[in-house]
């Protein structure tokens, strides 16, 4: 997809909004790499996954991403035989445990959400490695005494030597001679050495090694000669302990290295799951819907809203690159066109006015006109951004039933693109960009041109604009263009594949309404605005006379033609709305029928399983909790009751309340099959040969 268009439409900000909702760095990384696809099958698959995740989140089935980290660097190092430190192994086991939880979640939801459940095929089983690491490390990454018999013996020996050292020091501290020269009455440690805090002036009164001096130079920390032999013995044992710890860490790293390929594949799959989760969360937060894709090139957006403006008004992100509307009345010459909708009153929250747009039904090109600040630029940005979002697997902020084709390119020329570096004027820059667009556009492209023909003589600009519209029409691309040039406003009357549209403006309040009306021709309303702003009447009258002279005699046929086209567009919009409502009703009925059939099948299977119950069978009684299974003690088919033992108690329960444990229950998932990875019976640490320290 054209990268310049992605920049103009600010797709990076959409990526940022999606990345913000990812649970871990794996999903955030993929969100920042999101690109729209041109493959219809891939797009439909992405959309289906996003829809399933939205439904899962709406049902309270949030994926358990807690503890999932990006451990790919550690795993790759372990794969080539490197030794990981204890903290890295602790983080790795936390992630492997999280993979297990996500695997169980995918297993549990697989029946209701088959596409999400299908991701389970890419997730491995690592309980053997988890058990091995957890048997040697605690949650803070410390190597446990029980990691090996040798380590346990060495630490017992260290404890014994330390006890002898401490006893010697305590005996010294009871001496009045020693008490006299101490800075404070206790021993301490410098590194692994036990020392006494001696006042500087008494340094020569005790034999031993100086290990540190205080910052004020008033205290000298001395290891007494009386414990020197024990201290040397302690250092030797600690060196053996460090060697044993390195051996244990090498062994654990080797266990992780054996499942590296499966672990890396699982992380890739769960990173994709996190991206799907972020897309679903973004859809849920933004009240978005999945679009319907078609192969006929039809674009029908109903109630479309600009996602970045909505996010800004919700306080969800930094302001998009769209200026605020001016406080004074907008004019043709100085008001920016891409201002967001204003607030109706200071107390009311800001909202984005939705628009209805369609292309590819009766016309291929839409020429949008109207005053500045009316929302023309926002309208074409909305259409372009929603098309790109849909092809990236995202839902769109529009009503259910909106339709889109799969575009091979979305090509835009929007805003002031004056290039100071290349000494190009705004007009020259636009011409260069339009040249690129026309070279790349095909019949499957969407072209968006803002203020076409502006920046030069109006007559020449209008002529050039007509020629560009002719070229787009000959290519067959879908296109939306905005303009202020009067000659381009009548282009649609000479081409049946082109239609006009206008943005609405309130002359009473001098405020735009940001609504788009297909079939209308927008007016600049400059004279009416001038009159409302109390420009002297004789000046306005003279301006109206000049305007009439410039335009010549108005043709009544033109007004009649415009009214006929507007009436036809109103009828088309009504038909589209009715068609969408009918399709939604049909889909709802089909879904209800499917649900009823599934419920009937489940009831039939449950009744059959209850009919085959025998004493001794395990069952679940929902009113006692799915996590408290029981056992059938006695059955009474005549009374249709059963005696069920749950724990130490027995209960009389109706057979219709029992769920045999051969049936799937909401809380009981089938055990996952082991994939490539270490088995639950992992090699013992004691079998790992002692190696010289590196």
Keywords:
single chain; 694 residues; alpha/beta; MutS, DNA mismatch repair protein, Chain A, domain 3; Rossmann fold; 19 strands; disordered C terminus
Main sheet: which strands, in order across? 10-11-12-8-13-14
Overall geometric form: extended
Structural class by helix and strand composition: alpha/beta
Q: Radius of gyration, Cα only, in angstroms?
A: 38 Å
Low-confidence stretches: 318-347, 418-423, 664-683, 687-694
Tell me the total number of β-strands: 19
- Average residue-wise pLDDT: 82
Describe the sheet with the most strands. 6 strands, mixed
Helix content estimate: 40-55%
User: Hey, roughly how much beta strand do the residues contain?
Assistant: 5-15%
**Regarding CATH, which class of the domain at 288-521?**
Alpha Beta
CATH superfamily of the domain at 288-521: P-loop containing nucleotide triphosphate hydrolases
What is the second-level CATH architecture of the domain at 288-521? Answer: 3-Layer(aba) Sandwich
CATH topology of the domain at 288-521: Rossmann fold
What is the count of DSSP helices, taking H or I runs of 4+ residues? 20
Distance between the termini: 52 Å
């Amino acid at each position: 997809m054209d990268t310049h268009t992605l920049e103009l439409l600010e797709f990076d900000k959409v990526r940022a909004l999606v990345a913000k909702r990812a649970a871990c760095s794996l999903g955030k990384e993929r969100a920042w790499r999101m690109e729209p696809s041109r493959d219809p099958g891939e797009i439909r698959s992405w959309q289906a996954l996003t829809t399933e995740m939205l439904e899962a989140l709406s049902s309270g089935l949030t994926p358990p991403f807690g503890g999932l980290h990006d451990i790919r660097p550690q795993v790759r190092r372990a794969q080539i035989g490197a030794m990981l430190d204890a903290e890295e192994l602790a983080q790795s086991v936390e992630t492997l445990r999280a993979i297990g939880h996500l695997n169980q979640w995918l297993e549990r939801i697989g029946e209701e959400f088959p596409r999400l459940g299908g991701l389970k095929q890419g997730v491995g089983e690592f309980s053997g490695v988890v058990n091995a690491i957890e048997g040697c490390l605690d949650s803070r990454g410390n190597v446990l005494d029980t990691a090996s018999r040798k380590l346990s013996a060495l630490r017992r020996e260290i404890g014994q030597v330390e006890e002898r050292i401490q006893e010697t020091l305590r005996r010294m501290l009871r001496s009045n001679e020693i008490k006299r020269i101490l800075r404070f009455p206790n021993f301490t440690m410098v590194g692994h050495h036990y020392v006494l805090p001696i006042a500087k002036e008494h340094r020569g009164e005790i034999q031993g090694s100086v290990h540190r001096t205080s910052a004020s130079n008033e205290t000298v920390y001395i290891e007494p000669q009386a414990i020197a032999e024990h201290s040397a013995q302690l250092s030797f044992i600690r060196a053996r302990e460090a060697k044993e710890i390195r051996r244990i860490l090498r062994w654990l790293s080797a266990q992780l290295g054996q499942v590296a390929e499966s672990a890396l594949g699982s992380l890739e799959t769960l990173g994709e799951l996190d991206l799907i989760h972020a897309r679903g969360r973004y859809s849920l937060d933004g009240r978005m819907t999945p679009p319907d894709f078609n192969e006929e090139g039809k674009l029908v957006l109903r109630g479309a809203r600009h996602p970045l403006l909505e996010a800004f008004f919700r306080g969800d992100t930094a302001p998009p690159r769209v200026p605020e509307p001016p406080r004074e009345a907008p004019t043709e010459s100085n008001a920016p066109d891409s201002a967001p909708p204003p607030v109706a009153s200071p107390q009311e929250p800001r909202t984005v006015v939705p628009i209805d747009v369609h292309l590819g039904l009766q016309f291929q090109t839409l020429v949008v006109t109207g005053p500045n600040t009316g929302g023309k630029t926002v309208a074409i940005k909305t259409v372009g951004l929603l098309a790109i979002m849909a092809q990236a697997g995202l839902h769109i902020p529009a009503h259910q039933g909106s339709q889109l084709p799969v575009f091979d390119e979305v090509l835009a020329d929007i805003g002031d693109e004056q290039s100071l570096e290349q000494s190009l004027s705004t007009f020259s820059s636009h011409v260069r960009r339009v040249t690129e667009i026309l070279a790349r556009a095909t019949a499957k492209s969407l072209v968006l041109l803002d203020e076409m023909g502006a920046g030069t003589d109006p007559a020449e600009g209008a002529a050039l604009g007509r020629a560009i519209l002719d070229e787009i029409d000959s290519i067959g691309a879908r296109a939306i263009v905005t303009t202020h040039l009067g000659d381009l406003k009548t282009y649609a009357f000479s081409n049946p594949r082109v239609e006009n549209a206008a943005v609405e403006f309130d002359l009473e309040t001098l405020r735009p309404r940001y609504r788009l009306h297909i079939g209308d021709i927008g007016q600049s309303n400059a004279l009416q605005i001038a009159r409302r702003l109390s420009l002297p009447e004789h000046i306005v009258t003279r301006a109206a006379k000049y305007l009439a002279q410039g335009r010549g005699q108005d043709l009544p046929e033109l007004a009649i033609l415009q009214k006929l086209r507007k009436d036809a567009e109103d009828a088309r919009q009504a038909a589209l709305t009715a068609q969408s409502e009918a399709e939604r009703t049909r889909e709802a009925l089909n879904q209800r029928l499917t649900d009823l059939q599934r419920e009937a099948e489940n009831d039939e299977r449950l009744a059959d399983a209850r009919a085959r119950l025998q004493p001794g069978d395990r069952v679940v009684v929902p009113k006692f909790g799915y996590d408290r299974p029981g056992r059938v003690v006695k059955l009474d088919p005549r009374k249709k009751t059963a005696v069920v033992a749950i724990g130490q108690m027995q209960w009389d329960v109706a057979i219709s309340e029992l769920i045999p444990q051969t049936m799937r229950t909401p809380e009981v998932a089938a055990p996952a099959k082991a994939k490539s990875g270490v088995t639950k019976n992992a090699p013992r640490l004691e079998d790992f040969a002692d190696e010289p320290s590196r």
